Input
Amino acid sequence: MKPIRVLLVDDEIVFTNNMARLLEHRGYVVSAVNSGDKALDVIAERVFDVVVLDLKMPGLDGLATLREIRDTCHACQVLILTGHGAVDSAFEAMRLGAYDYLTKPCEIAEMVEKIEDARALMVEMQEGDLDERIERLVNAPPRDGEES
Amino acid sequence: MQIRKARAAEVTKASHAVAGADTSYAWMKRRLVLLIVLGAVLPLLGLGWTLHLHHTRRAHTRLLASFETQLDRHQKTIELFLADRKARLQLLADSHDQKRIGEPGRIAELLAALNRSGWSFADLGALDATGRHLAYAGPFDLLERNYADAKWFREVMRRGVYVSDMFRGYRDEPHFIIAISRPEGDRTWILRATIDTESFRALVENVRMGRSGEVFLLDRQARYQTRPRFGGEIMGPSGLAPLADRIGPRVAIEPAQRDENGFRTPRRVVGRVWLDEPSWLLVIRQDYDEAFADLVHADRAVLVYMHAAVLIFGAAGLLVTQRMLAMLRQRDRLGADLQRQLRCAGKMAALGELAAGIAHEINNPLAIIATERQLLVDDLERGDAPPDRGGLRGALDQIATQVARCRRITHALLDFARPAEVAVAPLDLNAFLREAVTLVEREAHASGIVFELELAAALPTVHADPSLMQQVLLNLVNNAIDAHGGKPYGTVTVTTHARPERRCVEILITDTGCGVAPEDAERIFEPFFTTKRAGEGTGLGLSICLGIVQGLGGDISLESESGRGTTVHLLLPVHSPAPTETEVSS
Output
């Protein structure tokens, strides 16, 4: 199975560095950026399976970044990471299309579990996508020119 | 600190509100009472008095007119009486000559004939030109008397007809006479009759009025010619000065006065008129209170009713005012209770937000510590390569850094709750503002906001606590920046100028941001009121600023146009009073 490509977005540089190393230890391909704008730049260039996104950042904040990601990249899953005590904005993020959220500080196991969930979801969606394509091919009307 | 201060400010504000409400109730009461007095009591009084005065004047005029009529009628009666007596004597004189009148018994017959239609002549005499009696009929023995020297004799010889004043004469009794001179060829003789004093008096006093009315006659020397009803004798002095021809209005009201003996004469209505011949003054007078009894009574009743009505109106008005104010006060109290409950609820919500913000600040370092630990755990569990000393050291240092960060936050929180020493010091406001703006300028510049400073030269020094002032200014300037809410450009203008007429320095902070909606502007200084999104503002900033500035004796107000921008006016007194109790304790 292809390794999962993870993008960490958080303004805490030490946190993203540490978390990147931890995830790499666990076999993920990890990139880390420290602002919403940079995240969008990186996403435009490369493909990620899961984006771990902090909500409270200076400049383009988590929710705004999430909106942009939803507009430009349909395939990747977004996992919200928040240090905010109130979960209101996390719920708001899920309404906008994030698939789950985590509160800081979190155990690495928890993080891994959520990422795996995201992958499972992604696979399911792709398979659904595949099934749909196969179905379309099977049910496609015979091409006119083939028999003649 | 800020929370405490906010509470203190709020308590102060609440007590101000209560005191303000009390004075405003008193003010309202004064206004309402004034309105009742102006709107009801005064017009009522005015109307009452106008009607009363009008009615009094008319009744007065009518009564005086009737008094005058009475005076006229009486004058006519007396003049007619005297004219009639003169005419009778004239007739007798004309129908006799000196010889015939001197016939024995003739004069007595004539006296009887004169008195046949009513007793009015006391005696009758005929005299020759030397003053000797030719004949005499009457109760006195006057036949031998010579009248050549009598005043009346001289007068009648001169005038032809004469009515005397009262005099005593030979009979030594007050009486008056009518004398007619009768020229007969080269001789002249005189017919003289005495008018009976009692019957004349009865005639004069015929119009006695009420209990206090009196009628009398005065001669020119102001001596009584008839006996007055109350005190005084015929020919006695009336106490008045000798009378002139002109005597003023026929009917007048004399004010109450004291005579020389200290007797008080009441206010009186007096009618006076000169008789034709003799020149006597007819006087009719009556106590005012009696003459105008009906009017006075009616007046009193009207005045009593009117003032009673005014009192009732006034009392009813006051009662209604009290009742209305009580209702208003109760409604206000309910409103204030509701307000308090709302504020309490709002405060709890805001505290929740504050807690959430603090949690965020603490959770970030905790998350880093957790990842450092996990990295170490990973290294240990892999076991193949023991962690190098440098890496271990780095991890521990990082943990220490994050712990220090947490400590900073908790200490800041403790500072937040610790009472602050207020240190008021002279402050160069312009330098201070430049410094404060420098602090935020860089961050603001990144979001496209430009600062403009228009600082007045030679600004008076203000007295304030620099750290508190910095808090106020940063708060206001940050608000001005936040007002642009993501707009990529904008200007924040900070202006200072002296306001010597208010002994103040004014700072204006003008932004080109979103402005404040009118309904928000009313509440913007309330603690925990915020228009920012959840988690972004505690709603304490402006209320804390207001508390601080009011503590310095200044004021903050706000002027805003929705969508165009806001100007905050900050007034600071040049000579700041000593910090108030709330400021020190907060």
